Amino acid sequence: MKPEVLKKPKVIVFDMDGTLIESYLDFKELKKKMGFAEDSSVLEALDDVTDSEKKKKLWQQLDDFEVEGANRAILYEGVIEFLDFCDEMGFKRALLTRNSKKVTQMILGKFNLSFGLVLHRDNLEKPKPDPMGLDVISEFFQTNKDDIIFIGDHLHDLLTGISAGVRTFLYNNGNNDIKSWSEKADFVFEDYTSFKNLLEKTFKQV
After folding, report:
1. What distance in Å separates the CA atoms of residue 186 and residue 6, rounded to the nearest whole number?
2. Is 164 helix (H, G, I), strand (E, B) or coil?
3. What DSSP string describes 81-144?
4. What pLDDT, in 10s, does the model give residues 60-95?
């Protein structure tokens, strides 16, 4: 691992589902019910639907699915402590999710979470894996890209970070088969407690 990978950041950006929370969302089953290909991405597949009435029903199906996930959601162990660590270190925090405004607000309220900037599909023209979200975050915090770390759990997150030129850390939550794309990550970790301890030790040496 290159030393600059663990360079002290000014901003840490978090994905939401699968990174901060376990929402038990089975997208394979959802895509099957929606009539989309298993290897498709739901938002992009929805954009391609031309029948307005069908599209409306599919959007409602997605909304119901995400709300159900939010109601079941739990925080991953060590998340609160890691967010507190970010505050103690003076890092700015941002949230970047493909979820909706409504569901994002549900999650933030449920777990009393707050971020300096929250971006979701309803206030961002181009969702992940487009780099727009990270570009907006960089501009909002007036921070260079090399002073940002993006933490996510999915290939979408890794592609977003690569496109934006931002260090991207992969949280291996155990739900994804990461073997084929984990090498795209700058760093991989499996629990927030040991990750926090590593960063704490590293930054104290700086």
Report:
1. 9
2. helix
3. HHHHHHHHHT-EEEEE-SS-HHHHHHHHHHHT---SEEE-TTT-SS-TTSTHHHHHHHHHTT--
4. 998 888 999 899 999 999 999 999 999 999 999 999
pLDDT per position as a tens digit, 35-50: 888 888 888 878 888 8
Rounded CA gap, 145 and 195, in Å? 21
**Length, in residues, of the chain:** 206
Nearest to 185 by CA among 172, 194, 197: 172
For residues 76 and 22, the answer to whether their CB atoms sit within 8 Å is: yes
The residue to which tokens 């998340």 are assigned: 79
pTM above 0.85, yes or no: yes
What residues have CB less than 8 Å from 42, skipping those under 6 apart? 27, 30, 31, 34, 36, 62
User: Pairing between strand 21-22 and 74-75?
Assistant: antiparallel
**Domain covering 9-22+75-204, topology:** Rossmann fold (3.40.50)
Domain boundaries along the sequence of the chain: 9-22+75-204, 27-72
